[in-house]
Amino acid sequence: MAFDHRKYVAFKPVAKTDRRWPDKVIEKAPTWCAVDLRDGNQALVKPMTVAQKQRMFDLLVKLGFKEIEIGFPAASQPDFDFCRKLIEENRIPEDVKIQVLTQARPELIERTYEALAGARKAIVHVYNSTSTVQREQVFGLDRDGIREIAVSGAKVVRDMAARHPETEWTFQYSPESFTGTELDFAAEVIDAVSDVWRPDQGQPMIINLPATVEMATPNVFADQIEWICDNIKRREHISISVHTHNDRGCAVAAAELAVMAGADRVEGTLMGNGERTGNMDLVTMAMNLYSQGIDPTLDLSGMAAISEVVEACTEISTHPRHPYAGELVFTAFSGSHQDAIRKCLARRKEGEAWNVAYLPIDPFDVGRRYEEVVRINSQSGKGGVAYVLERDYNISLPRWLQIEFSKVVQREAETNGGEIDSLTIHRLFEDRYLKVHADWVLRSYDLHRDEEGVRAEVSVGSESAPVRLEGRGLGAVEAVSEALESRFGISIAVEAYDEFALGEGTNANALACIRLTANGKHCSAAALAEDTTSATLQALFSAVAQAVGTEMPESAREAEVAGA
Ligand code: KIV
Ligand code: ZN
């Protein structure tokens, strides 16, 4: 059988008894380094063109990245040329450090310095693989041999930099495949490199610990980071960086726990593009911090524009459910979610801490509109439908009509199988409730109040031949119902009616909704009018029309003509 878990061996956890990181809380953003133009680019089916690289670089600068890995110039001519272009065309802001990757091989390091000639500030990032599998199966070298590669590389990096004092150099070393490296050996190599670079004597130095392959749960990675922080020499002079990949889907979590465990710096890419399942997603991690009230030091407010540039440069589309950036991540289709969001948003006061059910952050902060929050499909309920009518058309429905109308919308959604937009919802509402038939148009009304209640005189029907009705009741609705019964023999029992004054932006001033039984038939209707009484009486006629027919009973019209 091919699918056999016994083929795999569980990752051995770190034997640690002094674990402190679980009690730590992240209180500030780490130093970020964007590696979209190197690691991200190496993973693309079609590596970026110079124009795409420039666009990505400009975006990263605009977002606030101060450290940007721009390529692997010794291994790729386009990367070399791009590096030269940035330097020669003076396209690197003064406060931004470019970083370039190189293997720990003298000729490659030399070529790397050629690429960097004239740079104001630069990070030379040198790496070699240190894991057991790489030592034993790829390089056929023992620990000493691997350490020697790192040390001799570090020496070339140091010596080449000394020849170019005009540049402000930072040295970075990565024990590549760190997660598969014995911790004591990783520390041994790191110490050997820092013996060469001497960060304690002023040379800025970064140790980047990559989960080149994510091999265990994020807590194990955090243990590894804490162990290294505790066991390397010159820790206080070294910036500890992490570079997590997403093989198990936990790259962000691993980086977050690593920061709790002592990491100062985090490498990643926008939207997590990168080798295999990707690099750590900078957008997600930064926004996670933001959602905890921590300044991410990056400006991610234009999320749609960020996503557009990333898509244009990587030719990979953003998943609609991508945290914070996906098209659907702030949208609720489910009825109960919509209801909760609607209530929270309605109660929310400007300046209050964000506390809205189902929305971890305010979508507005990343350039999203509240219109996108509630979208309607067959899963949606009364709350969502009511919210859309209220939000887009200023129409508030009573609860009983919300329930009734949401079924109309749901039926439509089930028939069409997809989303129902706001325009369609409004059209459905108009068709189902607001239709006024020519024979049942309220033309005028006159209400006389006395001690016995209301006497109503109304004129209804076509403009040329309206029918006059007269009735009595405790209120206008009862009086007109009585008139309809005495004139047409329609027995009416009103079950509910509600009137609303409408806000600005509508032609009508009032909306009335009514539910009744006419001649034993349940009907509901609504009407918009200039005043609440007109709206209520029109709603009554429209509901009655549903029960007895859209045409006025002939007998009524004949009687009217005869009486005229
Ligand atoms: O994933 C990795 O190990 C790398 C290194 C070169 C840092 O990209
Ligand atoms: Zn990587």
**Distance separating the two termini:** 94 Å
Derived structural class: alpha/beta
Mean pLDDT: 94
Number of domains: 3
Apparent shape: elongated
Radius of gyration: 36 Å
Q: How is the biggest beta sheet arranged?
A: 8 strands, parallel
Low-confidence stretches: none
Bound molecules: 3-methyl-2-oxobutanoic acid, zinc ion
Report the CATH superfamily of the largest domain.
Aldolase class I
Sheet-strand content, in percent, reads 15-25%
The top-level CATH class of the largest domain is Alpha Beta
CATH architecture of the largest domain: Alpha-Beta Barrel
The CATH topology name of the largest domain reads TIM Barrel
Strand order of the largest sheet: 1-8-7-6-5-4-3-2
Count of DSSP strands = 14
- Helix count equals 18
Function: Catalyzes the condensation of the acetyl group of acetyl-CoA with 3-methyl-2-oxobutanoate (2-ketoisovalerate) to form 3-carboxy-3-hydroxy-4-methylpentanoate (2-isopropylmalate).
Subunit structure: Homodimer.
GO molecular function, one term: magnesium ion binding
Pathway: Amino-acid biosynthesis; L-leucine biosynthesis; L-leucine from 3-methyl-2-oxobutanoate: step 1/4
